[in-house]
Known about the structure:
This protein is an alpha/beta fold. It has helices at 52-55, 75-78, 81-87, 97-106, 113-116, 202-216, 228-241, 251-262, 310-320, 341-345, and strands at 7-13, 22-27, 30-34, 39-41, 44-46, 67-69, 92-96, 119-122, 127-130, 133-139, 147-153, 156-160, 184-188, 220-224, 247-249, 272-274, 283-287, 297-301, 324-328, 354-356, 364-365. It folds into two domains: 3-197 and 306-365, Ribonuclease Z/Hydroxyacylglutathione hydrolase-like (Metallo-beta-lactamase, Chain A), CATH 3.60.15; 202-301, no CATH class.
Amino acid sequence: MSRNDKIIFMPLGGAQEVGASCYYLKLGKYNFLLDCGTGQAFGEIYSPYFDAPVKMGYIKDFRQISHVFISHAHLDHVAALPEFLQRNERATVYMTDLTFQIAERQLTDRLSISMKENISRVSFMQEIPMKDLSITFHRAGHIPGAMMTLFNFDGRKILYTGDYSTFATQLVDAAVFPDEEIDVLIICAVHARHSMYVKNDEAARKILNQIRQSIKRRRKVYCHVNQLSKGVELITMINKFLPKTEIFIGDRILGTIHCFEEQYISIMTPNTHPLRNFVKSPSVILSTYPPKPRRDTDIVTCNFSLHDDFHSVVKLVEKINPKICVVVHSPPDKTATDTTIEQILMRSPDSQTSFIFPEYCQPFEL
């Protein structure tokens, strides 16, 4: 294989962890980033190691990274984009229109007018032709606007999933995978190493039960969410399972709702209101801002998963059956069962897949 045909992959963050998802992909002469997020550890926010491709000699200048593909608007996949664009004003950034709208609201103080000129809004099934390369985008599920990116390079097809869901959520249908043979699958699979994890919506049920009990006692409930889209998701769950509950919505989540409704995703109902100074009891307050303790208010931290469980990840990779599967965004199993997707599919006579679990800044030639 010549130098111009080589495929190199290296995590700059978000390797075997959740946070700072950002992956360097070299396709011959092309230098790309897949996602560009921040992480958080010990109360500190950190960015990907953008300098790694230069330090390791894959490029001579950081501005040789010509394109960035943003899978969706969660902060661990998009929040480092302003920092990247400050250092590389030449790059073109691809994301769906809805991802752009949500990201813009989350990065209001960092995404300047000049940076927005770098952003190209794309649609599902849209093709971006380049010399010796074509790129298409596919629906990823997970949250509205999320996309997978398929590269067709030198006769090989490389699919980057970003965060995806093979199940429908309250807000979006399941992912739609390309109907063609995939040579290299780069999969964000949080639970690919968690063989005991089975998705059962227990976390969501617990949150709804806490809300129900507080409302029954005629108290206010302050629901704190750390992602705007999860706030919208929670509103739809409350409206479905606790109908007629009065909900007061913080400005940032309300702005995201407006983004969804512009795309004909209906969220607001007669019992949902903007959060103002007066909030009656009983009611639910929904905000991304940390709560201040009050005697008349119960506090609920709202964290639930929109990711496939272990067996769903196994089933998906088995169905796609790529030659190479690169697993990222996948923290180790704290239960120490030591069972991974690789060990399961090794026993399958039909599986042709070789697995790579790359570590931080560890390059692989694919």
